[in-house]
Design brief:
The chain is mainly alpha-helical and 433 residues long. Helices cover 68% and strands 2% of the residues. A two-stranded antiparallel ribbon has the order 1-2. Strands 3-4 form a two-stranded antiparallel sheet. The relative contact order is 0.06.
């Protein structure tokens, strides 16, 4: 780690200068030699860096969403040119160029933070070794070595020996307890950030290997940070914990305000937006108007969640406009009611036995249905039913005909089995009596 940090020694001077400036501010409030002054200086350094990286974060979000959308096309290219790696790479680059997607954009915030992270590590290692670095002179060096965060010096590590920790004016137990808690919090914040991204802000309609990779990374990254964390000084753990918490909050804000289309977060967001429109009669806020504007511009290309939102507006008598606003519209309400009525009036789907009965009756008898007759009744069945009723009314004891009546009788038998005809049933075969 020290060798890697030395590669970024060129940036240690600006990093140390920023820390010293924040230390002057917080030292006037909490005291120059306190852990609060030095700890808050590191936290402020993180906040300053992350604010400068917001444009890269926005680019990362767009790139990640584009990569999710492109996964089916990328998979098709890989299967089509699986025996020609060069052609496969060419088609991939062509796809990236056409869609304006950069696969490395998703890693830009981490890559941009790396120099500052290793520069801070280099500064804290110099403090632990009692060496002046950057703008940190001997007086600031002595002040930083005296600073403790909950009993742990800024430059102490989990794996430090008893002698090294005592030289910094602390006990090994305090150092290991504080660093262990910070490592657990750092790994937990990393896991929760990745988990909320996978469970809420992923298009559920796209099932690709990319999603499986992200799920795997959700468990691998926290383990990597936990293993690396035992070699980080307390000051670096403060830096990394702060940047993880910032990322988690930033990700939560994006999920709530600008969710991925087709995701669970979009369903929840549009549900809240629909309730707001119902309560106030308008779309409040520029971000929400931009969301409605994008949904309207999609037209027939809307996903199921967006169509559900437009239908919900129509049921409340609102119509979304191209500028992102909504207006009262009796036409939209009438169209929603007529659409609901049409869905209610649609005939129920017949079962297989009902379809077979209808087909057998229509083709087997070769007759047409007379006005006033029930569906599924043939002339033969009606005559049988009439003869039976007359025989019962006259008290006749004449036995009924037990012979089958060709296709018509077999059709009637199927109707009887399926419960379509209400009338006298065929007598049982003598062998079954």
């Amino acid at each position: 780690m020290d060798t890697i940090a030395s590669l970024f020694s060129f940036i240690t001077w600006p990093v140390s200068w920023v820390i010293v400036q924040f230390h002057k501010l917080y030292g006037a409030i909490f005291g120059n030699d306190t852990g609060w002054a030095w700890g808050l200086s590191i936290v402020s350094l993180v906040v300053l860096i992350r604010i400068c990286l917001i444009p890269l974060f926005v680019k990362q979000i767009k790139s990640t969403r584009n990569m999710q959308v492109l996964q089916p096309k990328m998979k098709a290219i890989q299967e089509r040119y699986k025996n020609d790696k060069q052609r496969q790479s060419e088609e991939m680059m062509k796809l990236y160029k056409e869609t304006g997607t950069n696969p490395l954009s998703s890693c830009l915030p981490i890559l941009a933070q790396s120099p500052f992270f290793f520069a801070l590590y280099h500064v804290l290692s110099a403090i632990a070794s009692n060496k002046k670095i950057g703008v940190i002179d001997q007086s600031l060096l002595d002040s930083a070595r005296q600073a403790h965060i909950f009993g742990a010096p800024l430059a102490a590590k989990f794996m430090d020996s008893q002698e090294k920790v005592q030289a910094l004016g602390a006990s090994l137990t305090d150092v290991r307890v504080v660093t262990a808690i910070m490592i657990v919090m750092m790994s937990a914040s990393q896991f929760f950030t990745q988990r909320q991204l996978m469970t809420k802000n992923v298009d559920l309609t796209v099932k690709t290997p990319y999603m499986n990779q992200q799920k795997m990374l959700m468990y691998i990254f926290p383990v990597i940070f936990a293993v690396m964390g035992i070699n980080f000084p307390v000051g670096v753990l403060v830096y990394w914990l702060t940047t993880n918490v910032w990322t988690m909050g930033q990700q939560m804000y994006v999920i709530n305000q600008n969710p991925t289309p087709g995701s669970k977060a979009q369903d929840q967001y549009l549900g809240r937006l629909l309730k707001s429109v119902m309560a106030h009669g308008e779309v409040r806020g520029r971000t929400r108007r931009n969301m409605v504007k994008r949904i309207v511009s999609k037209g027939p290309d809307r996903n199921d969640i967006e169509r559900k939102f437009i239908t919900g507006l129509a049921k409340q008598g609102f119509a979304a406009q191209e500028d992102g606003s909504v207006i009262k519209s009796d036409t939209a309400l009438a169209e929603a009611e007529s659409s609901a009525a049409q869905r209610r009036q649609q005939p129920k789907r017949q079962t297989k036995s009902q379809r077979q009965t209808t087909t057998g009756t229509g083709t087997g008898t070769g007759t047409t249905q007379q006005p006033g007759s029930k569906t599924g009744d043939t002339p033969l069945t009606r005559s049988k039913a009439t003869g039976s009723s007359q025989a019962r009314s006259k008290g006749s004891d004449a036995p009924q005909d037990d012979k089958p009546a060709g296709k018509t009788a077999s059709g009637s038998s199927r109707q009887a089995k399926s419960g379509q005809r209400k009338g006298p049933q065929r007598p049982k075969h003598p062998s079954k009596k």
